[in-house]
Amino acid sequence: MNDNHFKFSTAVIGLPLLFVLSLWIVYWFQIRFDLDFYQNGIYPRDFSGLQGVLFSPFIHENLRHLYNNSIPLFVLLAALQFFYPKQTLAVITYGILLSGFITWLIGRENYHIGASGLIYVLVSFIFFKGIQTRYYRLVALSFAVVLLYGGMIWYVFPDIDQSISWEGHLAGFITGFVLTLFYKTPEYAKPIFYDWQKPDFKPEEDPFMKHFDENGNFVNTEILVEEEPEVISGYFNSNVLVNYTIRKKEDTDEMA
C-alpha cells in the first residue's frame, strides 16, 4: 500500500471535535445543574465502581482538568483517524474498556475520573504501531508523538503526584501497546526514488542495465574490430622492399 492510503476526510476533524465536545457538554451539565458525577467514576475492586469503566473518561474535576485533556485528545484523535482510519473506532472503544478495567483492578480506593487514560492509550498505540510498521511516515509520526508528549511517561509511576491517577495512566499505556499487537496494519510500499524500483521496470530494455548480466557483471556489448592496414609494396622501382601503411584521417588527427 502506498501513500494514497492517507487521505484527508471530514472525519479527521469531525471525530475529534465530536468527542471533545461531548466532554464539554457533560461538564456543562455538571456545573449548570450542580450534579455530582464523581461517583460515576472508577472505584477499584467494587462492583458498582465498574460503571466508571464506561463513564469516567467523560467526567472531569474542574475546568483546568478538562482543558488539559481536551487539546491532546483532539490532536491525537485527529492523528489516529488520519493515519489509522480502519483501526480508530476499535482503538477508542477497546482502549476505554480495557484501560478502565485495568484501572479498576490495580487502582487505589478512590474515584478515578478523566480522559487521561484514553490519552495514554492513544500515545502508546501511535508510538508503538509506527515503530512496528517501519514505514517512514508512521515512524516520523511516532517520533513526533514522543517530542510532544514524551514527558507524560513520568506520570505512569507512583509518587510523582498523588492527586493524579497514575494507575489510569499506566493502564492506558499498557492498553495502547496491547492493541498494537491485535490490530494489524497493511504492508506499506517503500517510496520509489529510482526507475529500477518501479514494478513495471524491465532491465533488459533499459539502456544502462543491458550492459550487465544477471549476476551484475559488466558485459561489453560493443566489439571493436580493427581493420588490417592496407599494405602497398614496391611503390618505387628499387630493389629494397618498402611497405607503406595507409591510415585513416581520424587516426592521423588523434596522433597529432
The H-and-E topology, N to C, reads as HHHHHHHEEH
What is the global morphology? Answer: elongated
Distance between the termini: 61 Å
Strand content: under 5%
Indicate the low-confidence ranges by residue numbers: none
**Secondary structure tally: strands:** 2
Structural class: mainly alpha
How does this model look, in words?
By secondary structure, this protein is mostly helical. It has helices spanning 10-32, 52-55, 63-83, 88-106, 116-133, 136-149, 166-182, 249-255; strands at residues 230-233, 243-246. The longest helix is centred in the N-terminal third of the chain and has 23 residues, at 10-32. The chain is elongated and about 85 Å long.
What are the main properties of this structure?
single chain, about 260 residues, mainly alpha, two-stranded antiparallel ribbon, 8 helices
Topology record:
Elements: H1 10-32, H2 52-55, H3 63-83, H4 88-106, H5 116-133, H6 136-149, H7 166-182, E1 230-233, E2 243-246, H8 249-255
Antiparallel strand pairs: 1-2
Helix pairs in contact: 1-3, 3-5, 4-5, 4-7, 5-6, 5-7
Quick structural gist:
The chain has 256 residues and is mainly alpha-helical. Helices cover 48% and strands 3% of the residues.
